[in-house]
Amino acid sequence: MKGNEVIAEAAIRCGCDAYFGYPITPQSEVMETLMAQRPWEESGMVVLQAESEIASIHMVYGAAGSGKRVMTSSSSPGISLMAEGISYMAGAELPCVIVNVQRGGPGLGTIQPSQADYNQATKGGGHGDYSLVVLAPASVQEMHDFVVLGFELAFKYLTPVMILADGVIGQLMEKVVLIDQRPRWTNEQIAEISGSWSTTGKAKNRKKHVITSLEMDSYIMERNNLRLQEKYDQMKAEEVRFEAIECDDAEYIMVAFGSAARICQKTVQIARKKGIKVGLIRPITLFPFPEKIIAEYATKVKGFLSVEFNAGQMVHDIRLAVNGKTKVEYFGRMGGIVPTPDEVEAALEHKLIRG
Amino acid sequence: MSVVADRINEIIKPENLVYAKSPLLNDDIMHYCPGCSHGVVHRLIAEVIDEMGIQEQTIGVSPVGCAVFAYNYIDIDWQEAAHGRAPAVATGIKRVMPEKVVFTYQGDGDLAAIGTAETFHAVNRGENIVMIFINNAIYGMTGGQMAPTTLIGQVTATTPNGRDVDLNGYPLRITELLAQLPGAAYVTRQSVQNPAAVRKAKKAIRKAFEIQAMKKGTAFVEVVSTCSSGWKLNPVESNKWMEENMFPQYPLGDLKDSSRADAGLYSIKG
User: Fold this and answer.
1) What is the ipTM of this complex?
2) Which 8-state DSSP code applies to residue A133?
3) Phi, psi dihedrals of residue B247, rounded to the nearest 5°
4) Which of A167, A261, B66, B127 could hold A26 in an S-S bridge, CB 3.0 to 4.6 Å?
């Protein structure tokens, strides 16, 4: 199946309650697949095409207030429009899943794949001090799995979760193992999970619930911020996910996520045939970033190469983790160009080994 | 006991009660200025929800603007929306919980400027929600700047020489525009300048909530309102200014009273 179609299929099967979205290339198949599947007839899942990405994310905000599982998807320019609503959801501590199938920017940019929204996704993307859990799928299977995982994390931390895919993964066709259809949560389950904060109508035996990110008292607002930061610290302690490939004996390590990591896997094979001991660290969570494993290898290897489809964004997070202990270089292409494994191997030799 | 206390005790006997605060309004002192219409409209909404017995089903969506704190006063569940996005937020709530009662409460900047797109499309979809629109022709919370509904010649913080058509365009009669949309079931313009008007406004708000229960489409109630602080007039002068200047531009009355249009009128033939 195609990566974008799998997002829709996983949403239906994991019992998602609602999807709100607006068409944008290269991810329009998500909503098209949902509309073709007509899940409202089977499970009652709501699927609605909004008038804009702004409206989509605020529909998600409203629907998430009910304690139900709600999601949207878009691509880079659309995610910029959603930044307001994502910030509000982070501030109001509402769970949801947001898929960004990235394309090249800035501006209208291109419809070709890119990873240029790394900073936007991992540093919050909107105004205020907040972070999202950011999951970076490198296969169609992970597109599927991260929808399911995304909802788990969204409700564990009461936070928006972003699946940061790119045009390659969105359009890629691969075999995928789908989960069995799960029922949507019942009202009783929702009451148990979210009953302490959800706005479903004020029952006689409880105080009114108000979902807001507003607080005029600076001392309380600071406490709210500290609570968010504690949450992010807990994510850093408990949710870091990565894959380390052939790193045990490595003299050099490449760091790459999403489709760039797929290319680097091939580069590892090519370089090792040449006798270059290179490994690959693939961050699966971009926030929380796998800084510990990188810091550990920083004292063991001769250098890191960050490979990204952008101008060098993740490289800064690697440098922070490495903290000056070894060399950190960047190689990437922009504008929708996807480099070949040989091109990456050449950069590895040129920038890191001989550079 | 003083004579005064005796008299007060005589007066507050239950059998003398002719009017009481709605049980849905709490005792918090409202932050609204003297002469502001918000307090009256809050009271009407609280009364309607109480009288219809829908407190446990109702979710309010408060805006950005003076009424951002509406959630402090009416004892129901609330979601506070970003500036202008209340109709989208209400859409999200209503779509996943169609059995609940959902309303937005928005000012003119929120509903008719920054949130114009969300307003139009929610009404055009015929969302089964109630929208309460407070039009006082000025931005109250940010300190009295020009609103989309500010009248020509009206002085505000950003139109110190009065609103100028060449520079600022025209006052937006958004309610007339919304009445044209097939998704609208009930569109009305009310005010609360005297007891008779307050009674009519309450009837309109109640009707709007009843229309939601009947799933007839969007019910939209504009309330032409005062902003004494923004207009720099006392409450009595504000009412007079509203009657003399606002009512001719924003005439009161029903603009649409039916239900959302039959899809057949808009369908392809083949």
Assistant:
1) 0.97
2) E
3) -60, -40
4) A167
Mutation site, B61, B89, B116, interface A, largest A CB count within 10 A = B89
pLDDT per residue over A112-145, tens digit each?
A: 999 999 999 999 999 999 999 999 999 999 999 9
Domain boundary, last residue among A112, A142, A171: A171
- Total-model pTM: 0.96
Within A110-247, residue ranges assigned H as helices are 118-122, 140-157, 167-171, 187-194, 218-238
A56 vs A98: CA distance, rounded Å: 11
Domain contains A216: no
Please give the interface size between A and B, counted as residue pairs whose CB atoms are below 8 Å apart: 128
CA distance A271 to chain B (A): 52
pLDDT band at B2 (very low <50, low <70, confident <90, very high): confident
How many angstroms separate the CA of residue A323 from the nearest CA in chain B?
40
Given A140, A171, A202, the domain boundary residue is A171
B79 chain-A contacts, CB cut-off 8 A: 61-62, 65, 199, 210-212
Domain span at residue A41? Answer: 3-171
Number of structural domains, chain B? Answer: 1
Q: For the domain that residue A160 is a member of, what is the CATH number?
A: 3.40.50.970
Q: Are residues A139 and A253 in the same domain?
A: no
Closest CB to B56 among A70, A202, A210: A202
Instruction: Flag whether A210 is in a domain.
Output: no
CATH code of the domain in which A311 resides: 3.40.50.920
Secondary structure letter of residue B248 according to DSSP = H
For residues B74 and B46, the answer to whether their CB atoms sit within 8 Å is yes
Residue A186, domain member (yes or no): no
